Amino acid sequence: xxxxSSLLFVYGSLINLTNNSHHAELKPYxxxxxxxxxxxxxxxxxxxxxxxxxxxxxxxxxxxxxEISDIKRxxxxxxGYEECSNAFPEPREYLRRLLPINVGQxxxxxxxxxxxxxxxxxxxRIASGRWCD
Length: 133
Description:
Elements: E1 2-10, H1 21-26, E2 30-44, E3 49-53, E4 60-68, H2 71-81, E5 94-102, E6 108-116, E7 124-125
Parallel strand pairs: 1-6
Antiparallel strand pairs: 1-4, 2-3, 2-4, 2-7, 5-6
């Protein structure tokens, strides 16, 4: 497995299909890398999703990978957007982690992604693992 610290995995409001203004803000620094799959469960938080890691192989969250030309700038921006920077009180809603993302049957890369960090017991699970379904 090759580690790419300049890759970002997005699965919700930042994927291209959502036409989110924050996605547009990132475009000058991002190049589409391909589709990816995170071993996790996806939940509907409100009008946005949250992914929580899972040990079950069948739990998959589908998203997009982007290669970032200015990783520091993008991560600082996204840490604010995802409310996980030091400007927000703990516990923070999301945590940024470098995680393995499957991009093919036998290819895994490491990419930054944001995991939901609050209680999920009352949230609706999105069994398809796709936010835009």
